[in-house]
Fold this protein.
Amino acid sequence: MDEQMNQNQNADPAAGQGTGGKTFTQEEVNRIVQERLAKEKAKNGGEADFAKREQELAQRELHMTAKELLSEKGLPVQLFDALNCTDKESLEKSIATIETVFNEYKANATSNIKFKGFQPGSGNKMPDAGDVGDLEIRKAMGLRT
C-alpha cells in the first residue's frame, strides 16, 4: 500500500512542481521521522532521568526528616519502618500516632510494676513469705521460710 501511495505522489508531476519543493520517497520520510523521534526520545529521556532523580532525592530527604523527628521526640529510630513516608503530612500524622501510643505504653508500663520481697533501704526486715510463689522459690534455694 505504501508503494501505491509513493507511486501516486510521483505520478502527479504538477503536485511537486507547483510547490517548488522536493518530493521524498517513503524511505526518506521514514528515515527523517525516525531521526526526529530519536532526538525527541533523547531529550525526553534526559528529562525523565532528571525527574526520577529529583523524586529519589525528595524521598531520601523525607526519610532523613522522619529519622530526625523520631529522635527529637525521644522515640526509637527503629520505628522508621512503621511510618508512612509518602508525603510530609502522612509522615507527621504517623509520627504523632506512634508518639501517642508509645507515651501511653511507657506511662502504663511503669505504673503497673509492684515489687515484692526485700526492698533496699527498708531496714533489715525479711521479705514476706506469704506468697506461695515466693515460698516455693525460697524452699528451692534452701532459704528460711
User: Anything to note?
Assistant: The chain has a mean pLDDT of 75.
